[in-house]
Amino acid sequence: DTEVTQTPKHLVMGMTNKKSLKCEQHMGHRAMYWYKQKAKKPPELMFVYSYEKLSINESVPSRFSPECPNSSLLNLHLHALQPEDSALYLCASSQDLGQFYFGSGTRLTVV
Amino acid sequence: GNSVTQMEGPVTLSEEAFLTINCTYTATGYPSLFWYVQYPGEGLQLLLKATKADDKGSNKGFEATYRKETTSFHLEKGSVQVSDSAVYFCALTLDTGRRALTFGSGTRLQVQP
Lengths: 111, 113
Description:
The structure holds 2 protein chains of 2 kinds. Chain A has strands at 4-7, 10-13, 18-25, 31-37, 44-50, 53-57, 64-70, 73-79, 87-94, 100-102, 106-110.
């Protein structure tokens, strides 16, 4: 199983809502990542978890809150987002930096 | 810092034409290099990779050679198909420091029948 599964695939939320994005992998990878991708742009790194500990936070606003409850799951909690946060949110995992596996993403629209 | 530069797109080709997408990098150390492909509405798929100088990555008719002397990793395919239409990202990672992928800006390829 070389899949990274992200749910939901699409999400529309208001600026006062709280929602969560979920990511799951069962490859035994110990590093997991959140990337944000705006239209016609490359993915931008948001967070890195290594062995379930947050190792990189790329100065992401606090309205995005990551969580890694166990080695297979990665969540991104969203609260009080702005319309400019609308984007494709990609999750990835890797074991040894030799290969990164990406999920198909959650397309988020903030209204 | 580390960075990846790709040629501007879109690249428009006719079916069966030869493809080259240029990619150069700047890195402190010895990076691993990757090409990822993104089809419309989807996530990223690894196309090929190379982990040391002179390595050639290949997959589905695509090839790229890790050239340390020119800090390049150009993507080539001898005969493109309409189904190759997608956005292609060159990327690197290092095993020290910021242990995550750094992407180039992406190159959109459009193949016409």
